[in-house]
């Protein structure tokens, strides 16, 4: 199935990756993005597992490596900045990945790799989809209607295009924790390490280095679903101030930067559970289809892997129905594995009491101790064998 026209909604990670591969396989691709320009915000994300191999095949691995944030690993600290546990980069499946990059940098690299071969339309979105036997007629908010052979939604966890395709069938499942991200001025004592601090009341503060001379901070806290993500920004900032004023450690510094910060973002951490990812001539990919949560460190990687497989299967099959079926069959077990959060997540990492935090930090110290890491490497044989990818990627090239 080549030489066909495909409309993709969303120009972040999944959309441009899908466009890259579809173009390589001979499709004519248009991307529509709601924002007026490429969105360059966001914090450190990882390119892991099969996704690293895919960006290598795309010729982008070196560019991503060059844009690395330089993070050395994760240090767990107490209120007095005493280090309780250390996980150096690449030393465990946890924490800092080999390819650690700011989301905006990755989005830009993918955009640059596709912009000459893909039609990009910014500042618009799909308002209606009418499927016919051989095409889909698309009504846009701002542009004249057009028809495409296929339409793919890659427009994130709260995709409205997905709703046009599947109605309320896919479910956004809140996992019980809110997270807020913001960029703050760097101070001299900030290092190239990421820091993790637990405060009583099931609250966590993180800081991470970037490659832009600033520091990326985040707050997270356990909470019932209160719809905070729908509130105006000023109200969200008030909630963060109330929640973290007495949290200790670097809370005063981060809260002081809250008013001036240009990119404060608060959302309930959620997964997308969709019983199917394709319907007729439409499909979903990336967070729109199977957001695993940032807790898994796999959001961007899963988007890259899903986009590669969807494009590859479309190139391999004459009929899009067969291609869509193969996409679902190949990817679903992997997605289910990633979405299956370990027992106790997110509660274990957000202890409520001072005693709970002491127990948590003791466990972190134990697991991160060099001796324990060496023993577990020895037992699992990881020292000798290269890390195995968790998904066997088909070779479509
Ligand atoms: C601005 C931003 C900042 C982020 N920051 C972080 C972060 O700090 N840490 C983290 O782990 N993850 C972050 N994410 C999410 C992360 O990018 C995704 O989890 C992952 O990379 C999967 O990407 P995706 O392409 O499937 O979806 P997303 O990255 O969510 O991208 C969706 C794209 O679709 C666009 N869009 C939305 N609705 C429509 C519509 N109706 N029509 C057209 N376009 C639409 C959006 O503007 C966006 O460009 C961020 C996402 C964005 C958009």
Please give a structural write-up.
There is one protein chain. This protein has a domain at 5-44 and 51-68 and 103-172 and 271-339: FAD/NAD(P)-binding domain (3-Layer(bba) Sandwich). 33% of the residues lie in helices and 26% in strands. The chain has helices spanning 14-24, 50-57, 61-66, 103-114, 160-166, 233-244, 251-258, 287-290, 299-316, 320-339, 354-368, 370-380; strands spanning 5-9, 28-33, 44-47, 73-77, 83-88, 99-102, 119-122, 126-131, 136-140, 146-148, 150-153, 171-185, 194-199, 203-209, 214-222, 265-273, 278-279, 282-284. The chain has a 7-stranded mixed beta sheet, with helices on both faces. The protein has a 6-stranded mixed beta sheet with strand order 7-2-1-11-18-17, sandwiched between helices. The protein has a 3-stranded antiparallel beta sheet with strand order 8-9-10. A hairpin with a 4-residue loop joins strand 14 (203-209) and strand 15 (214-222). Helix 1 packs parallel to helix 4. The two termini are 15 Å apart. Flavin-adenine dinucleotide (FAD) binds at residues 9-15, 32-35, 39, 41-43, 45, 103, 125, 154-156, 159-161, 181, 286-288, 294, 299-300, 303. Flavin-adenine dinucleotide (FAD) is lined by residues 9-15, 32-35, 39, 41-43, 45, 103, 125, 154-156, 159-161, 181, 286-288, 294, 299-300, 303.
């Amino acid at each position: 199935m080549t030489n066909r026209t495909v409309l993709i909604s969303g120009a972040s990670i999944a959309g441009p990756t899908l466009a890259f591969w579809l173009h390589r396989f001979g499709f004519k691709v248009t991307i529509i993005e709601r924002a007026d320009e490429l969105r360059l915000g966001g914090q450190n994300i990882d390119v892991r597992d099969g996704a690293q191999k895919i960006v290598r095949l795309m010729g982008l691995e070196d560019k991503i490596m060059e844009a690395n944030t330089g993070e050395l690993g994760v240090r767990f600290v107490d209120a007095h900045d005493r280090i309780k546990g250390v996980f150096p980069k690449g030393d465990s499946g946890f924490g800092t990945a080999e390819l650690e990059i700011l989301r905006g940098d990755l989005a830009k690299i993918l955009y640059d790799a596709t912009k000459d071969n893909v039609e990009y339309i910014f500042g618009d979105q799909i308002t209606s989809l009418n499927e016919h036997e051989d095409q889909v007629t698309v009504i846009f908010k701002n542009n004249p209607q057009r028809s495409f052979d296929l339409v793919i939604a890659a427009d994130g966890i709260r995709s409205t295009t997905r709703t046009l395709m599947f109605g309320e069938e896919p479910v956004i499942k809140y996992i019980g924790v809110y997270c807020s991200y913001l960029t703050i001025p760097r101070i001299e004592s900030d290092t190239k390490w990421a820091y993790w601090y637990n405060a009583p009341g099931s609250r966590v503060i993180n800081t991470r280095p970037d490659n832009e001379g600033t520091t990326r901070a985040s707050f997270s806290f356990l909470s019932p679903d209160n719809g905070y993500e729908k509130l105006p920004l000023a109200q969200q900032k008030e909630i963060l101030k109330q929640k973290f004023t007495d949290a200790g450690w670097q809370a005063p510094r981060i809260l002081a930067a809250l008013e001036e910060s240009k990119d404060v973002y608060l959302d309930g951490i959620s997964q997308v559970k969709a019983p199917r990812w394709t319907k007729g001539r439409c499909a979903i990919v990336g967070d729109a289809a199977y957001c695993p949560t940032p807790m898994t460190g796999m959001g961007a990687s899963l988007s890259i892997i899903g986009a590669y497989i969807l494009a590859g299967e479309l190139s391999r099959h004459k009929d899009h129905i067969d291609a869509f079926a193969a996409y679902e069959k190949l990817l679903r077990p992997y997605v289910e594995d990633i979405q299956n959060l370990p027992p106790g997540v997110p509660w274990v990492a957000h202890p409520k009491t001072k005693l709970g935090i002491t127990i948590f930090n003791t466990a972190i110290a134990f697991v991160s101790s060099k001796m324990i890491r060496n023993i577990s490497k020895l037992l699992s044989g990881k020292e000798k064998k290269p890390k195995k990818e968790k998904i066997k990627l088909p070779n479509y090239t």
